[in-house]
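Subject: design request, 404 residues
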């Protein structure tokens, strides 16, 4: 290319350092999505490990080129290095290594405008998802159909029915963010229909409801900007969203008692999430610095086989973080997330704040959001803490990024 890089339909000025980051991030994003599909069988194991190492190598080159060792980078680096090392300590394989790698990308993205990164993510994630879904329809990879009671769920090329809806939810939220100034009705309808179709095929209710609700919320915020600003004190309630959601999830799980009628009914409505979480807490406990834990769910391996063991999967992200990564990791993470939410509120980034609050609530019922290909807004929250100027709307043509 001639000094410019096509990102999401717009030409943005890019330095060689930017290309290093986007090459690494693009490969990581595509690879992460393919790992959730039956294409994972083509690069599972050592190849996947070396691809991840290659991604990190590109990030290392990017950091060295842009002054990684400057003193101004140390505070952010120390916090995210701690989270990276604590999560890496209990990572069992390529899939669980996505979490510590996520923190590395959050740190390295501090020089990248979030709007630019969002366009890039939306573009390449859409292409990757389309390849997987069409491959399933063409018979290139499997399209597993699961029959359970009255529910029929198609996996559409992915290794579990919930994977595609989770990725599509992230793409929908990225589109809402990118079109927050215009929000064309036709686009809203198209994304709404796409989410409905995936819901119809996969029977994934929570992701569908959240996507549709935030599409409507985006329209309201576009049409009534003065009302949004007047409700600023109300948006402050979103600041402790992760602490409140996590506390509610852990309390309901820890104190779950099947003999209490309302708890038993709630557990039934949540597909036994409370009882499974309670059993996990009793079995594995809550360590200070994490432990290697693998729960058995309905997901399939790259060959389409299920794990032949009793189902004990924990869907609540908060319970899983506490048990797998430990108390220290959980406390540090909650402090950072709450500070990020406060900065979003302070800087009046209300849409990202509300999206993040919705993700916090969603994490009570679904653990998938703890990965970049399911929630790109982790990077936005990192920028809110370490480089808030990168959340401002990018101009038509970005100048070369300054060192931060």
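Subject: RE: design request

Done. Sequence follows.
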């Amino acid at each position: 290319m001639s000094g410019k890089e096509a990102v999401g339909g717009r030409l943005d000025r890019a330095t060689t350092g930017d290309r290093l980051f986007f090459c690494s991030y693009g490969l990581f994003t595509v690879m992460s999505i393919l790992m959730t599909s039956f294409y994972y069988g083509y690069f599972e194991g050592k190849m996947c490990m070396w691809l991840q190492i290659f991604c990190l190598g590109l990030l290392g080159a990017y950091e060295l080129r842009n002054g990684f060792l400057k003193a101004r980078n140390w505070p952010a680096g120390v916090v995210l290095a701690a989270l990276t090392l604590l999560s890496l300590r209990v990572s069992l394989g390529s899939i669980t290594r996505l979490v510590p790698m996520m923190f590395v990308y959050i740190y390295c993205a501090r020089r990248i405008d979030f709007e630019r990164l969002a366009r890039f993510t939306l573009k390449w994630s859409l292409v990757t998802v389309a390849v997987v879904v069409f491959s399933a329809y063409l018979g290139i990879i499997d399209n597993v159909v699961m029959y359970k009671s009255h529910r029929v769920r198609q996996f559409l090329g992915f290794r579990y029915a919930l994977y595609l809806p989770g990725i599509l939810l992230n793409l929908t939220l990225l589109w809402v963010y990118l079109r927050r100034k215009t929000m064309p009705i036709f686009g809203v309808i198209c994304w709404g229909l796409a989410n409905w179709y995936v819901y119809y095929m996969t029977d994934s209710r929570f992701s569908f409801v959240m996507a549709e609700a935030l599409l409507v919320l985006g329209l309201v915020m576009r049409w009534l900007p003065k009302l949004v600003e007047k409700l600023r004190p109300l948006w402050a309630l979103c600041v402790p969203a992760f602490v409140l959601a996590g506390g509610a999830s852990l309390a309901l799980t820890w104190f779950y008692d099947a003999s209490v009628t309302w708890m038993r009914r709630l557990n039934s409505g949540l597909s036994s999430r409370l009882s499974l979480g309670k059993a996990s807490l009793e079995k594995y406990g809550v360590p200070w610095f994490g432990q290697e834990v693998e729960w058995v769910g309905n997901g399939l391996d790259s060959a389409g086989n299920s794990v032949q063991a009793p189902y004990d999967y924990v869907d609540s992200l908060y319970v899983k973080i506490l048990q797998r990564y430990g108390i220290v990791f959980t406390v540090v993470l909650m402090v950072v997330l709450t500070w990020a939410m406060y900065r979003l509120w302070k800087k009046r980034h209300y849409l990202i704040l509300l999206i993040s609050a919705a993700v916090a609530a969603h994490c009570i019922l679904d653990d998938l959001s703890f990965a970049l290909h399911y929630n790109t807004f982790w990077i936005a929250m990192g920028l809110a803490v370490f480089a808030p100027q990168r959340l401002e709307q990018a101009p038509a043509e970005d100048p070369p990024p300054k060192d931060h």
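The radius of gyration is 21 Å.
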